[in-house]
Specification:
Strand order of the largest sheet: 1-2-4-7-10-13-16-19-22-25
Structural class: alpha/beta
CATH architecture of the largest domain: 3 Solenoid
Strand content: 25-35%
Largest sheet: 10 strands, parallel
Radius of gyration: 33 Å
Length: 505
């Protein structure tokens, strides 16, 4: 740090022209460059301190030894999870880090304290917890709160739920993957953020007489029973995808339920089943391609229009068949059809997409486009308009209702009517399993990468087999329709006509 010095005994005055003699070798850059180098060194030290603070946090000089130990973590080893949780508590560790090998012995682990379990840093995939977890509340003890961050929870030896949130306890899951269901007991609370629940032997999430449930950007998929079965509780579900379940996607009993921006598709029964005592508040949801219907039960779903709950002003995504991708836009008008304003690249007008005649259409809107850089809104006018700035054009885009999704849910798979098959390479499969990006993919062992490559090839073969079967069914239907259109004369009538033709006279 540079400081201003005061004159000594009046010998150095401010207006004096003579400078102090400089002893030693003279700098070739002069005094100005010397001061500049000192300033640069000061700034570099300041930047180093700021970077250290960003990486390790700011620690007060007055913090006690106990507070310093509380910031430590405990690195687990393969074995029993409950024992290592107790060891971490004895050392006042803030979190239990799970290594790449995972933790657990395939049994049910009961936790009854404030526990944070998370992945060790810089792992390419979420580490496995090979056990079932259950939380319990001990009388007179602090409230049990379980927090899981970026772990894979699942046990192949059990058909029950992999996570049971006990009565009066809380659970929070962030970026986790579960190979099984979740059960909420009486008075329990849970919060799930960017969590995937798949392959459950029963319901994906089941709760009765629970306190509160919050789901944000979660995926409930491939469950043997319902995706969610909720009764006598309160839940806030937003931006979630519930698909391919053996029964209904969402079953709502008595309670207070809020649905925002969710997608229910491909379920064996209904997209949403609401009982008469259910108080549901929904906005911007879509339910499509469910076998028995998009909505069932006696409960009332406000703002629900034939499976599409999108209202004017809601953001959405629309499938473009010609480009084979989803395009962002917003709803302009809702009638029997959905009018959508599409956002695309500047100066590029999307062509009109062909859609099946049997499905309702989602026509493009004629709203004015905002002045966002590189964006335009496509309307029903298929020619460029001179009053649009920066060469922005407008075009029409018509898709079936099944080609509309909420902005943050529904996945990236093409709709059922699309001819573009979903191609998922090994890297996309790696990211779907919770991968950490390109750097994590490069860090994977070769045998793990080979497993993802084999899975991608297997899925491509399945897509090919499905296409062949679909083409055979279409050809059989075409032959049947052609046979119905042909006029086939019965054999007895042919014989009668022949006899009449050869009769003499």
């Amino acid at each position: 740090m540079l400081r201003r010095l005061k004159p000594l005994d009046g010998h150095l005055d401010a207006p004096a022209a003579e400078a102090l003699p400089h002893e030693g070798p003279q700098s070739p850059h002069g005094p100005t460059r010397q001061l500049g180098s000192v300033g640069r060194r000061a700034r570099s030290r300041k930047g180093a301190k700021a970077k250290h603070k960003q990486l390790f946090g700011k620690r007060s000089r007055k913090c006690t030894a106990g507070q310093a130990r509380a910031r430590a973590v405990y690195l687990a080893t393969p074995g029993c999870l409950a024992e290592q949780v107790n060891n971490a508590r004895e050392q006042d560790a803030a979190a239990l880090l799970v290594p790449a090998e995972g933790v657990g012995t395939g049994q049910t682990e009961v936790l009854s304290s404030v526990v944070t379990i998370e992945s060790a840093p810089e792992l390419p995939l979420p580490p496995p917890l090979s056990c079932n977890l259950a939380t319990r509340q001990i009388a007179g003890a602090p409230k049990t709160v379980l927090t899981l961050r970026r772990v894979l929870l699942g046990c192949s030896q059990s058909d029950g739920p992999v996570l049971e949130v006990g009565a009066g306890t809380e659970c929070e899951l962030y970026d986790c993957h579960l190979r099984g269901g979740i059960k909420l007991c009486e008075g329990a609370s849970a919060k799930l953020v960017r969590t995937h629940v798949k392959a459950s032997a029963g319901a994906g999430i089941e709760g009765r007489a629970f306190d509160n449930l919050v789901l944000m950007a979660c995926v409930i998929q491939n469950c043997a029973a319902d995706g969610l079965t909720l009764r006598r509780g309160k839940a806030d579900i937003s931006d979630c995808t519930i698909s391919d379940c053996g029964q209904s996607g969402l079953v709502l009993g008595p309670g207070e339920w809020k649905l925002t921006g969710c997608t229910m598709s491909g379920n064996a029964q209904y997209g949403v089943w609401a009982e008469a005592d259910a108080h549901v508040t929904c906005r911007g949801n879509v339910a499509i391609d469910n076998n028995l219907g998009d909505k069932g039960g006696r409960g009332d779903l406000p703002d629900w229009h034939a499976g599409c709950g999108l209202l004017p002003g809601d953001h959405c995504r629309v499938w473009s068949e010609s480009r084979s991708k989803w395009m962002h836009g917003h709803v302009a008008e809702v009638t029997d059809e959905v009018a959508v304003a599409i956002k695309g690249k500047s100066g590029l007008a999307p062509p009109d997409d062909a859609a099946p005649d049997a499905a309702p259409d989602a026509a493009a809107a004629d709203d004015a486009a905002p002045d966002d850089v590189g964006n335009l809104q496509v309307d029903s006018q298929q020619s460029a308009q001179p009053d649009r700035p920066h060469g922005k054009t407008a075009a029409g885009l018509k898709v079936p209702l099944a080609g509309v999704r909420p902005r943050r849910s529904g996945g990236d798979a093409p709709p059922a009517y699309s001819k573009a098959g979903q191609r998922r390479g090994p890297y996309r499969l790696f990211m779907a399993e919770g991968g950490s990006g390109r750097q994590g993919w490069r860090q994977l062992p070769r045998e793990v990468q080979a497993r993802f490559h084999a899975e991608a090839r297997r899925q491509r073969r399945q897509i090919g087999v499905a296409k062949v079967a679909k083409s055979k069914v279409a050809a059989a239907r075409a032959r049947a329709a052609a046979a119905l259109k042909r006029h086939v004369v019965p054999a007895w009538l042919q014989r009668q006509r022949s006899a009449h033709r050869h009769k003499p006279g």
